[in-house]
Write a structure and sequence with these properties.
By secondary structure, this protein is of the alpha/beta class. It has a nine-stranded mixed beta sheet, sandwiched between helices. Strands 2-5 form a two-stranded antiparallel sheet. It has helices at about 35-50, 70-80, 95-110, 125-135, 190-195, 235-245, and strands at about 1-5, 10, 20, 25, 35, 55-65, 80-85, 110-115, 140-150, 150-160, 160-170, 170-175, 200. The chain has six helices and 13 strands.
């Protein structure tokens, strides 16, 4: 079984994000970049399925600038077999990303596609659902557990009031939640091996897709500074402050 995993290059979640002086965008100068955490969970799940003997090949795809090869190599070091970079200098919107991934799905014909449910920079939570609609494939979103058996994927997801399990005929699209697994660290030998694994580079034109975005960023503002906390001497004082100052009770 072939699994296709999509990964996105984002600012490392440990980094404090800075805004450019002209408020036009986030400042990426000398900022550490990494795989989007939800995408890293997707890679880990694919690797675990391969270790169980369910999957035979894992293909990692990323869309973006040449620098995104760094995140593909990281995924290869974690256990993926080969990578595909769709190189573009444009900042594609979610629909363009879904169209590019759909073109890759048409070429690769994977049995399962795993994506992070959202990226930590745009927080759109759209691409997986759009890809499923464009490809005409069943989808299981926000997966906290995935099992593959008898040509079907069983996906458990959190819903209001509990858990819901859906059964999907393969091929299918799955998006990952944080509870699905805990990604491993890449070992030094695997990092070295990843440098020799195949990585193909394509362009949106190769796939017949025009990259566009329907969103224009007007201004980027940092979040408001939080005021310092205070220490109270008793429960009564806490309740009084919640009533009179915070006005939450």
């Amino acid at each position: 079984m072939k699994i296709l995993v999509a990964v996105k290059r984002v600012i490392d979640y440990n980094v404090k994000v800075r805004v450019k002086a002209d408020h036009s965008d986030v400042d990426l100068t000398n900022v550490k970049m990494a795989i989007n955490p939800f995408c890293e969970i997707a890679v880990e799940e694919a690797v675990r399925l391969k270790e169980k003997g369910v999957a035979s090949e894992i293909v990692v795809v990323s869309l973006g600038t040449k620098e995104s090869q760094e995140q593909i190599r990281t995924a290869l070091a974690l256990g993926a077999d080969r990578g595909i970079l769709v190189e573009t200098e444009e900042n594609p919107g979610s629909l363009s990303v879904a169209k590019l991934l759909k073109a890759i799905v048409d070429e690769e014909k994977p049995d399962l596609v795993i994506l992070g449910k959202q990226s930590i920079d745009s927080d759109n939570n759209q691409t997986g659902q759009m890809l499923a609609a464009l490809s005409g494939l069943p989808q299981g979103t926000f997966a906290s557990e995935v099992t593959i058996e008898d040509g079907k994927a069983s996906v458990t997801r959190e819903v209001d009031g509990g858990l819901q399990t859906v059964s999907l005929s393969l091929p299918a699209i799955v998006t990952t939640d944080l509870r699905l697994n805990e990604p491993r660290y890449a070992s030094l030998p695997n990092i070295m091996k990843a440098k020799r694994k195949p990585l193909d580079v394509k362009t949106p034109a190769d796939l017949g897709v025009e990259v566009t975005s329907s969103l224009n960023t007007l201004k980027v503002e940092p979040p408001a500074e939080r005021s310092a906390g205070i220490r109270v001497g008793s429960v009564d004082e806490l309740i009084e402050k919640l009533k009179t100052e915070a006005k939450v009770i």
